[in-house]
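Trying the structure run again after the queue cleared.
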Amino acid sequence: MNEKNLLLQLFSAEPRATLEDITETQWSSILELAGKQHVAACLYHHLQETGTLGMIPEDAKEALFQAFQANTFRNMALIAEFRRITEAFSKQEIPVIGLKGLHLAEKIYPHIGLRYLRDLDVLVPAEQMESAYRATLALGYQCEKVITKQDLVAPHHHHLHQQYHPDKAIILELHGYLIEDKNIEMRELWENASPFEGHHYRYLDSEDLLLHLCMHISYSDLFKIDLRHYLDIYMMLKNQSEKINWEAFLVRAEKRGLTKGVLLVMQITSELFACKLPEQLQRIVKDDPGQRERINHAVDFMWQYDKSSKGYNAYKSRVFVPDEPILRRLVKRIFIPKEELSFYYSLDPDSWRVYPYYGRRVYDLFQRHFFMLIRTRTDSRQIEAVDKTRILHRYLFGN
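Done. Tokens:
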């Protein structure tokens, strides 16, 4: 059995039989894979909970413990900083929702150190983005990009450019929306959110959290993610399934145009962790060759993940993915509306200085995509990756 399957089976309710078959040589590969997929800390805790931690080699046990310990200390620091930020926001009456990892680490996983957190994702009302941004500057956060009024109304992106605290080494993303190009009524989402007792922030309700996780994997990242994100959903199925109103969940998914992506993500999670889906989902999931192909492609991308999804930008780009002649796509990407162009280059959209930047846009697109374009026409692995992404993109965004 290969290391990928062994890693997945170690997350089963009874990992003992799997552990008996793993050689010391395989442990090295399993640990490397668990690290890349950001699930090492959770694996340590799971083996401990199932009483099988003593069955693994001492050096493997120590490596998993170090991952768990580092995650715990890091998450404690991030959550403490999140509370510092929300306290500052509360003084200005800016409501806050903690997104993804923050919510999961505190509310879904059984221990605060099990969910790997890369940064802080904070949702604020879009109309209060400027006030929130100024509050973060007062807290010591910086941004490499010049933030303009266009950034603050977020017309072309769902969050501000990343901010960084130089002393704390913490990255912060202020979100005004959850995603572009999808009809998510933010007022409804805020109304559904629940306050975190004793603190100045809220969390998404179970249905919206699960939808957000599915949407992030599928529509936002086109399945260019690590196992950690499917583990999030497995943890929700394992620990929250009885609390989720599945009918309401499906109604919201349909209303927001997320059903295809949601069902595909849920099927993949079910297969990866050998867990049963709720009956309401089982009745409507697809079981056909097309869906099997899409599942296989998505899982392939997951195992290729290595530290950062930035390496997949070529396969997510609007230059490469749509089924349209490449020259037509490039022309569309060059001659974007001047408001969008001014957003990318931190310009005043009403100034004449915007127009010369179309020349800069040509240069930047050429620099960014020319060699990738050559590779996607000559490198067999790149050709295969783009073809797989197009299949997934067509399924999610096609009519």
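Strands lie at 97-98, 120-123, 163-165, 170-175, 194-195, 202-203. Worth checking whether this holds up in the mutant runs.
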